Model the fold of this input.
Amino acid sequence: MIITVKDNSEIASLNPEQINEGTVIFIENEKKYQKFENGAWVDYNPDLKLSLYDMNKNLVASQKNMDWRKVENVIKKWNPQGTYFLMYCKDIGYFTLFKRTEGAPEKFHEVFKDCLINVGDLKACDITEEGNGLEIWVKPKDSNSAICMYLFNYDEGVVEFNG
Done:
């Protein structure tokens, strides 16, 4: 896990229980990493050791929360077609299946928001490059890094059967 701090002054205020041999911090203002080795912080280059996804998880966590009104606009722009939609996150084993139902008491963006609030703070939400879903970054309440969730049409994933 990588701990994100704004500047060097925040390093001293870290909880000692969080710091072990090999702990890595990202210093936002300097855009650099340091690693705790032999009782001291040393410069660290994670390029070879961290995947792009792992780096994004830590960088996104430090962003301010996304405004929920913007999320509604992203959903309108995506304009999802279909009946079933799955929101999935491999990192935490999260699944929510949404079903479009005419006459339901709440709109999609409202139930979507309720689900995300239960996971943590929304950091980013945008349409995937392919345009077939949403990429959602959330910082769980009990974590220092963000997770990526995906929301996509799941009509083909629902199989009907008889009794």
In short: The first strand starts at residue 2 and ends at 5. The first helix runs from residue 52 to 61. The chain has two domains: 2-50, 68-157.
